[in-house]
Each structure stands twice: as C-alpha cells, then as structure tokens.
Amino acid sequence: MNGIINVLKPPGMTSHDVVAFIRKVLNMKKVGHTGTLDPEAAGVLPICVGKATKVVQYLTDKQKHYRANIKFGAVTDTYDSYGKILRESGQVIIDPKVLEEVLKSYTGTISQKPPIYSALKVKGKKLYQYALEGKEVDIEERPVEIYELKLLDMAAEDEAMIDVLCSKGTYIRTLCYDIGEALGCGAYMSQLVRLGSAPFKIEDSNTLEEIKTAASENRLDDILKSVELLFSHYKAIIAKPSALSSIMNGNPLYGQGVQQGFEELIQNENVSIYGEDGFLGIGNVLYDADKQRLYIKVKNIFI
C-alpha cells in the first residue's frame, strides 16, 4: 500500500498522534507526516504511506494556506491562547484600516524568530524543552515568505480573522505576535486552521473516522492519492521498456532510452518519469559535457 492520505487533523492531537492512529488503522509501520501542525490547530495534514514516505521532503517544501484568529490586547509565552499571559494592555479597539496597513508590511520576505514553545531543534534539542526547563537559548531569526496576507473579518473590536498563504517554516503564532507588537497592544493567536498544504486542500480532506471506516470496508484506494500528484507541474517523459531496468538502478537516462518527451527538455529542470504502465519517479535534466548532450539524472523512484 503506497500513497498519500489528506487527513483532517482535529484539534487536541499532535501530528505524531495522527501518525500513530494511521499506523494502527492500516497495520503499517511505514507512515509519516509532512510537517508538524500545532496540537491545538486543525486542518490539512498529509500523511505518507509505504513508499510514498520518500516524498515527505517534497511536500514539506510546498506552500501552506492558513486561517487564523488574532486576539489583541495581551501576550502569552506560547504566542497562542493556551499559554501563560505575560502582559495585558487592557481593553483595545482595533481600527481595521490600520490593521490592514500593518498586514501589508508583513507581506513578502520577512524575518521571523520561532517561538520558544516549538519543536524546532537548536543544538540538537527541541526549543520547548529549553522552555520547560526554564533555560534561555539564543533563537536566530529566519527568512520566510508571506505570499498573501488578508484581513477577512473583525470578529470583535479586539479580534481579527486573517488568511495567510506562506512558505514552509512560517510560524503563524509568531506572525500574530509580531502584528500585535507592530500595533503596540500585543496579540496572540486564538485559533488556527490549515486550509491547504499544496496540492492538498481542506475540502478534499478525510476525517480520522472516515479513514477508519474506509480501512474496515477495504476502500482505502478511494482516499489514497498517488505521489505523482505532487509533480503534476513537472514536464513528463515516457521511458522505453528497454530502459526501465537501468532507471530502477538509478542510472542516467539518455535520449535513446526515452520514448516520448525528451526533445522538449531544458537543462536543470525537473521531470516526471513514466513507463508504459504509469508513474515511476522524478529526475533532473543535466548536461553531459563529455558527450555534449542532455541526460536525466534519476532522483527518486517511487514504485
């Protein structure tokens, strides 16, 4: 059994809890998630099964889409509603126009300092472990990309709902904290839902109960997605049957081993590799200076 399950993670479970659940339901050990989602957050958590675990690195690099609520007027040690309140500003009234201007300033490439209560490792140790031990640790700022940041609604005078399209490694809790600091009143994230982890969207996700039912009724094929979905934007080539053995061993693939698509390739681009029976894996187009021609370096085989 190989593929990706678009799981709708409920609040209150860690990403590891979801992996453990899937392992038990499928009776498989080779199961992995594609990027941690905070325990109290809900939403899309793609889970890779079987040989699809090889694509985890490609899924974590994809854009993420979030919807978050920001509560203004207080700061917590975790940057969310589950932490200890460190300071309060009293009653605040947020002007939506002022907030929108602040949001604009956080669009594009920005620097973020990950929250101390996070699973990010520093010197081989998770940050939250330092926090629980009461130890201070230097946390370096990291560049992240905010592609879109929109104000959707003012849920109250002191609470806003935002929509965020961002790169991997973006902490929405930190974004909420930083927005509060920019406004001068402090803020924390009060709610978070991941709407998408490209190409997986929340409207196509499966609850844990639905996955359990599908497994008991032998309908897992209905929810398992092929790994080729991740590479649908790559150019595709079809290898000749005579080249399959060489490809499976990771050997370079030259034009004479390609049945269709080689003439359209450009140096340094990624390609999807197909056989006559379907998707095999991915490769990268390189130039052989000695032979003065292009070839495909096989990167990963997923069958």
Description:
Strands 1, 2, 3, 4, 7, 10, 11, 12, 13 and 14 form a ten-stranded mixed beta sheet that branches. Strands 16-15-17-18-19 form a five-stranded mixed beta sheet. Helix content is 19%, strand content 38%. The chain is of the alpha+beta class. Helix 1 packs parallel to helix 6 (208-216). It is globular, with a radius of gyration of 23 Å. A hairpin with a 2-residue loop joins strand 12 and strand 13 (200-201). The N and C termini lie close together (10 Å). The longest helix has 12 residues, at 15-26. The model has no long low-confidence stretch (mean pLDDT 93). The chain has three domains: 3-61 and 200-227, Pseudouridine synthase; 64-197, Pseudouridine synthase, CATH 3.30.2350; 234-301, PUA domain (Archaeosine Trna-guanine Transglycosylase, Chain: A, domain 4), CATH 2.30.130.10.
List the helices and strands and how they pair.
Elements: E1 3-9, H1 15-26, E2 31-33, E3 42-49, H2 56-60, E4 64-72, E5 74-76, E6 85-88, H3 96-105, E7 108-112, E8 121-122, E9 125-126, H4 127-132, E10 142-156, E11 159-166, H5 172-183, E12 187-197, E13 200-201, H6 208-216, E14 224-225, E15 235-239, H7 244-248, E16 258-260, E17 270-275, E18 278-288, E19 293-301
Parallel strand pairs: 3-12, 15-17
Antiparallel strand pairs: 1-3, 1-14, 2-3, 4-11, 4-12, 5-6, 7-10, 8-9, 10-11, 12-13, 15-16, 17-18, 18-19
Helix pairs in contact: 1-6
